[in-house]
Structures are given as structure tokens and as C-alpha cells.
Specification:
Helices cover about 30% and strands about 15% of the residues. The protein contains 22 helices and 27 strands. It is an alpha/beta fold. The structure holds 1-deoxynojirimycin.
Amino acid sequence: MRFLILVFTFLLTQFVNAQKKTIDQRVDSVLRLMTLDEKVGQMNQYNGPWAATGPLTNNDNLLTQIKEGKVGSMLNVTGVARTRELQDLAMQTRLRIPLLFGQDIIHGYRTTFPIPLAEAASWDLEAIERSARIAAIESSAAGVHWTFAPMVDIARDPRWGRVMEGAGEDPYLGSLIAKARVKGFQGRGLGSTDAVMACAKHFAAYGAAVGGRDYNSVDMSLRQLHEIYLPPFKAALDAGAATFMNSFNDLNGIPATANKYLQRDILKGEWKFKGFVVSDWGSVGEMINHGYAKDNKDASMLATTAGSDMDMESRSYIQNLAQLVKEGKVKLSFVDDAVRRILRKKFEMGLFDDPYRFCNEAREKEQWNNQAHLDAEKDMARKSIVLLKNEKQLLPLKKTNGQRKIALIGPLVRSIKEHLGFWSYDWPDDSSRITSLWDEVQKKVGDNKLLYAKGCNINDSSRAGFDEAISIAKEADIIIMSVGEARDMTGEAKSKSNIHLPGVQEELIKAVAATGKPVVVLISAGRPLIFNWTADNVPAILYTWWLGTKGAEAITDVLFGDYNPSGKLPMSFPGTEGQIPIYYNYYNTGRPATNDSDRFYRSAYIDFSIYPKFAFGYGLSYTNFNYRNITLNSTSLKGNQKLTASVVVSNTGEYDGTEVVQLYIRDLVGSVVRPVKDLKGFQKILLKAGESKTVSFTITTEELKFYNNDLKYDWEPGEFEIMIGTNSKDVKSAKLTWNK
Ligand code: NOJ
């Protein structure tokens, strides 16, 4: 039997290699026929004529250029009809090389899923993979070949609007989520018609833009780059990500687009990446503004030399690259390598065999309002909600509450599109297919018990609606307030210096709470917001992010106890903008403050707490979980031995509930200082009311490794602290030694 398996594995490997070889041979045979201009054409990507997600450079003769073989890929072109129309033009070129259609499918296509940051709060890798899978199924049915996702940038700064697109602040969680998303997008592999190519972006360190200002510079040590910012990219690559996108920022003085260290040395060198790198929108040309290139020609030379294979919408390559090669300023081998990488993906996608294989009207229709997808979306949305506070078990609310009246107050109670968030698609029938919180609460409790007042707008200073809200509140027995951000307040180019709950919404909450009635606050937003008064004074708060098509249903299920929340924050929530950047895996410093009164010559603020308002990994349940002390299989380990750390977790409340049990490790003394804790594992477990479970983590020296000062990735012997708990702050701990 074993022999047969070996033979089978051998034959399979041969077959796969033969296939690869065929693709490489086919790529070479096309490359041999290509003129230099045609090669440069493949490295050129334009935005389509119907929509734009950045500043257009020029859109004049787009269609003619496609026919002339000057375009290798298009973005912002979706739908079978439109992609077919442009593919028809590509089929009129001399070599009939198909176009690749790329699109930002960030959190769903027709079915809008929660924003990626919200999904990260689920800590549910299977659900996240399923979400990406569905996004791929729906978008590939609409002619899309390639999504510009996942964004795997680590983000420690909620002022940065793009935090919504990533998985938050932690490299370990971020890496697992990156992998899940790539697997979801690429499904059974490139070549299946329901798979889209993934694109790990933005390479690299874009999340560390100074001051949280979008497109801004990044200056960081290489150690930090390798330890915090690169791991999710490596994870995406290991999961098979077909492409990478570089980033707008400069990194230590070199724009990422022209960064040879990142693209040639690390990505294509050390990591052996075989796919291609697309620039970000206009980032080749923008190197002139950076003060790094003197003109577009110079920019093209710098970008191609550094390994940027495709130019998105800056028209620099198409205008200059052929000339640069003729002048000997760019090696032809660089161009050939880039084109080879791009053609290989077109072959792998099956586009050379049938350029229209993603153009299938019947399949496109089938994916429209697909019930299974909507159900999965609702599941994902419920899992993403984070219960921040629940005093006196105000939640869940009872559906059958006799004559009790519920007041729904706030600017988001009746909104529809705000659920969808940034990077989502507007469909003309959205208002009829998506429900509001008002609609859903009505379904749960019936019309006659509901009262409504808007109270104020999301982001202006008018208090004109306060009186009505207060009088409605006085009539009610319980109040649900729905507040937060408009869908365009967090996203690309949406950095903010003030991340408090916008407008006069928190004042409205104060005014309503002053009636003395119990208040539940729902906060819909794309980023961690600041709402200290609410956090300190309102008994129940749910952070509901932007949850997508079924957002209102998911929220209502949680409000009325049809779902027990289990989300955990993937980012620390600051108490003031002055604390930013704030993250759980900080260094202890030489003068650590032990609490907020400990300020005498300490690493502290004299005017504010050093702690986040809500810690990384934090989130409550309607039930309670009790953690007993950690037990270790040994407190003195050697070399390749394995450590088992276990903890008994009990559900001591009255509801069945799901808990994310989190494992953190601290290396107490290192050749470079180590963080006070690092997430190294977690398990999501379901516990029935009254049930207890032993949760065990197996730890090897892999989990102890870090980058030392010579950028060597290894572990060092010594003393370690193991911490297990319900969030990054509340942990049980145990110590051990581990020697070589
Ligand atoms: C710029 C964004 O930075 C990038 O993430 C996106 O994929 C492109 N625009 C295309 O829309």
C-alpha cells in the first residue's frame, strides 16, 4: 500500500511538473514572438471607462490602445458584458493575448461581507476563508480574474483610514487571516473558473504611514519590518498568492515601487515568489512627487529595475520603457522576466485556451442574490460583532416583553447603505434588498412597541433633533441607539486626526441617557473610534463595524439573544488620539509604569492613561468564562522538546457561548528587547452553560523565534512567560526555562 502511495505521489509530481513545464514552454513560445512594444504593453494596466478608484491620468484612446496590444490588464471593469466587450478588442491584436481583469473585491461583490477588520474580529479562519471564497465565486462569475486583496498591512494606527481593509495590529493573527483569505480567493487553484487571483498588498509597511496619514512615508528598522510587517505577506505567499501589489509609501527613503530590497531581494529572491508585482495606482509616476525620480522615464527605469512588473494607471511604462531598453538603461532581461510572470498567470488562469471562460451570463445570473451566500454573510456578520460592555446583563433583550416599549434612536437606525462600508458595490436595488435596523427590530418585536427618532445627523453640529429624541426616550422602557460613521468616513484617503464618534452623536447619547432609561449603544464604524463617555456611562455597547448585506439582521439577532456574541477586537482601541500608535505587543522600557498612578519619572502620560480603552483581543459574551491556572507539562525544557500549556476554561453563566482562548508568550531576556507579550496561538471553543473544557497549546521553539540584530531568525535560551486568557490584558501566567 505504502509503495502504491509512493508511486502515485511520484506520478502526480511528474504530472504537475510536466504541466508546469508546458506552461513555461508556452510562455516562452509566446514571448519569442513578441516585439518589444508588445512586451511593454503586457506590463501596462489601465482603469476602465466606467469607474475609477484613483486619480485618472488620461483616458483618451484607451480602446484603441487595447486593440494595438498596448494594454495587458484592466481594472474597474466588471460584468460579463463589459469584460467581453474589452476582451473582444484584445482578440483583435496581433498575438491575441487575453486581457486580465483586476478589481478591488475587498469584502464581497454582490453579497457584501463585513469589512475585513470586522471579519478579523471573528478570529474564525474558516468563516473568513468562506467569505473570500464567496467573493471569488460571485466576482469571477462577473468576469473578474483577479482581486486586489487581501490587504495584509499591519495597522497600529486607527487614524489611518485603511485599517478597515486589514486584519488589525497583530502579525500572528494577521498571517493566519492572510492565508485564509488567499485560500478562499484562489479556491481549488488558478484555472478553475470560480477562482480569482489573490494580490497581497501593499508591499510593504504601508500600515505604518507616519501620523496615520494616507500615502505618507514610513521609516522603521529592518528588524521591525521583518518581525511585525512582513510576516502576513510571507504567509500570503506561502498560501499561494498569485500576485503582490507594492505600496504608495517610501520605506526608509526609497519608494516601495522602486524598492529593490523589498521586491528583488526579499520577495523574488529570498522568498522565491513566482507571480508578478503590480504597482499601486499611479505609484510609478508618483515617484516624481516623492522626489525620487526626475520624470516618468526615470520613474519607469527605477521601478522596473527594482522589480515592479506592471504599471497600474500611471502610463509611465507604456510611454518610456521600450525607449529605455533601446538606450540600454533597462535590461531586456528585466522586461522579459516581468512579461513571463504576467503571461504565466494568464496561462494558469486558462485565458489563452479560452479568453471568455469567465464570461458566462448564466453563471453570472446564478450568483445574483444567492441564498447560500447571504446565509454565510449573516453568519460572518454575527461572528464579527464585539460586545464591549453589558452591565447587569442588560443584553440580550427579551422579544416577548409584554407592553415594554423600545425606542430606536440615532442617525443609523434607518440607514441601509451605511451597513456596507467603504470598498463595497452599490447596486441599484440595494434599498429593496437590504434591510435597516428598524426593519429587523420590527420583525422581532412587532410594530406597536417601537418608537423612533433620528436625533441628529452623523456628522454635523445640529442639535435640532435632540428634543424629539429625549421625549421619545422618556416614553420608552428601553432605548437602542444606532450611531457611528458614514460609509465613506474610513477607507482609502480617509485618514482622520480626530477619531471620536463624529458630529454630536455622543452628545445625543448623553442627552438620551440623562432620561435615566436603560440604553444600549450600537456603534457602526470602519475603525476603532473614541467614545469614552459612552464607554464609561452607558450600560451596554456592541461594536458592529460595517457588517454588509445582512448587517441589520445580524445585529438584531445579537440584540435579542438569537446569537451570543463572541467577537474579539483585532486592534487596541485608544482612549485618546494622543496615545496612538497603541498596541499590545510593546516593549517594557527601562521605566515601565505599573499603573496609571505610577507617573513619577515613568514611561507614562501625566495627563492620560497609558492603557487602551479596550485591549487587543477583548470582547465579552452573554455568558461568563472562568480561567483556572495554567498547567505546564514541564517548567524546564531543552532543545527540541515540546511544551504543553493547558488551562481549564469553564462557562459559569447561563448561556451557551463561544470563547476565543488566547495564548501569549514573553521572552524575558533577549539579545534585543522583546515585547511584553506576543500572540502565539488561539482556540475558538464552544462551551455549553455550566460546561468546562481543558484547552491545551503545544509550543515548540518555533514560537520562541524572533529577528535578532543581525536579522537572523532564531530563538534564544532562557526564561519565558506563558500567558493564556480571554484577551491580551486578562491572562493567567506561568514561567519556565528553555535551554539549548
Ligand atoms: C489604490 C489602492 O491603494 C489599492 O489598494 C487599490 O487596489 C488600487 N487603488 C486600485 O483601486
